[in-house]
Amino acid sequence: MPNSHADEESQRDRIERLPQSVEQSIDQENLRAALDVTRRIHRTNASLSPAIQAGHSEIWRLSEEIKLLEAEALYAWSITANCVWDADDFTNRWYDSGCIEGGENQVIHAGSLVYKRNNLAFHTSYLEYFERLTLHNWLFPGTLYRFEGMMVVVESGDEFPQLRPVVSQKALRAVRGATRDEVERLMNQLGFLRRYEDNYANADRTLFIEDLHDQNVLVDATGDLLVFDPVIYLTKPAL
Fold it and tell me: Binning pLDDT at 50, 70 and 90, where does residue 46 land?
């Protein structure tokens, strides 16, 4: 006879994957709320959560379906929380600043801050995006992201309007890219070992971090390392 309690525990474990210490580090009300909203969608639509064992095309299909459900819930939340940003204003400022892009982000500068609008091209879900944001802030507080809200973006080539998250970050000045040895020392202090090239894993291999090269890890005038836009994978062994 199926153990419904065990199934519920397993499902919650898959959805609420952040370590307790990471959960306790969240001090941004908007980020906490966005995690709660997306987790509810994954709990009630567990069959749509992209599975690692699925083929690439199946992962893509499931990813698009779950993103639509997440987007509806996040948009409703952002209206209630007064966190809907003006997409046209952001786009105009982005054009005026020279159309700065980095990976999946469009970037604008505003005084002591930069703002990044993410198209989620490298994420299977909004939940994964918010998990990675939380992990980044926990691991690399010197380049902390503040989740500001959502905006509805219409671009040529998109069949439908897209809901995109916006974050802010301190505008930091660097003098050079970090060497691999410097990055490795930093990651060793954080409990990670280099696996190959610029990719690292923690001791129990539940966290993998990629792209810690000299364009994503910079050194400021005081010698501190600044980590920008690493790719963080969160895994957890099946129960």
Answer: confident
